[in-house]
Structures are given as structure tokens and as C-alpha cells.
Amino acid sequence: MKKLVIIFCLTFIFLSGQPKNNFTLLNYFKGDYSAYTETAVLEDNIFLGSCYLNKGRIDDLDLLVGESMVIKNLEAGAVIKLLKANVVKTESLGSGAVVIYANSPLINKSVRISNQKVNLQIAVYADYSVIGWPLILGSF
Predict the structure, then answer these.
(1) What is 31-87 written as a DSSP string?
(2) Based on the number of CB atoms within 10 Å of its own CB, is 107 exposed (0-12), middle (13-18) or buried (19 or more)?
């Protein structure tokens, strides 16, 4: 009986795959938004930046491979606190910008930078910030 329960549990875990990614920046922030997918879905959709998401279907968030948003007067500390993130690395750019790499438990898609899991990037300028997951896609 014990083996049967173990086999059932392992089968369930295998079939369920990775947890769904229901995270979207749109639930937390307002700004100039871009979303990125590997494929485009064309039927009954709304256009959001660089991809299409079906209205009313939260499952379409699984199509996202990343998002980015430009926001005026955003404090990086507030983003880190709101998204329960841990800062992995910080660097200063010659342009005066500060770039923060972090890891948030709310985002399940990530990349590795210097052998550390990163799924949130924040670039802070004087009067605006750019945030993105797993990294800021496009220019900033």
C-alpha cells in the first residue's frame, strides 16, 4: 500500500509539471508595459506590448517568457518589499543608473547569473525606473 501511495504521488507530481506562472507586473504596477512570448496566440485576444493575451484566460500568463515596465518615480526598495524579493547583486552604470538583480518567490521563471537564481531586474534612473522579469528584455 505504501508503494502505491508513493507511485501515485510521483505520478501526480510528474503530470502536473511546474507550477503555473500567474505572476504579472500588471497586478502590481502601472506604466509603459511590454510582454514577451515565444509564440503568438491570435484568436480573441488583446494586444499588450509585444504579445497577445486572451481576455479572461489566466492560463495565457503561462505564454509569457518575460515582462518589463517603465514607471516614473518608483523606488526600488518599495518594489523589493512588495514582491518579497531578495537582492542578489547591485551594480552602478556610467549613466548614473543603478541596476538591481533580485529573486522573488512570487515569480517562478528565472535565470542564473553568477550561479545565483535571478528573476527580477530593476534599473533605477533619476526620475524613472524599468523593472522586468526574469530580466529586463529590450533596452533600458
Answers:
(1) SEEEEEESS---SSEEEEBTEEEETT-GGGGGGEEEEEEEEET--HHHHHHHTT-EE
(2) buried
**Residue 36: strand pairing partners:** 66
Q: What is the pLDDT of residues 30-68, one digit of tens each?
A: 888 887 776 655 455 544 544 444 444 545 566 778 889
The closest of 93, 43, 48, 42 to 66, measured between CA atoms, is: 48
SS3 4: helix
Q: Provide CB contacts within 8 A for 55, sequence distance 6+.
A: 44, 45, 46
Q: Answer whether 88's CB lies under 8 Å from 102's CB.
A: yes
Helix (H, G, I), strand (E, B) or coil at 104: coil
Amino acid at the residue 6: I
Query: pLDDT at residue 91 above 70?
Result: yes
Q: Compute the distance between CA of residue 134 and CA of residue 68 in angstroms, rounded to an integer.
A: 9
pLDDT at 20: 52
pLDDT of residue 61: 64
Kindly state the DSSP code that residue 131 receives in the 8-state scheme. Answer: E
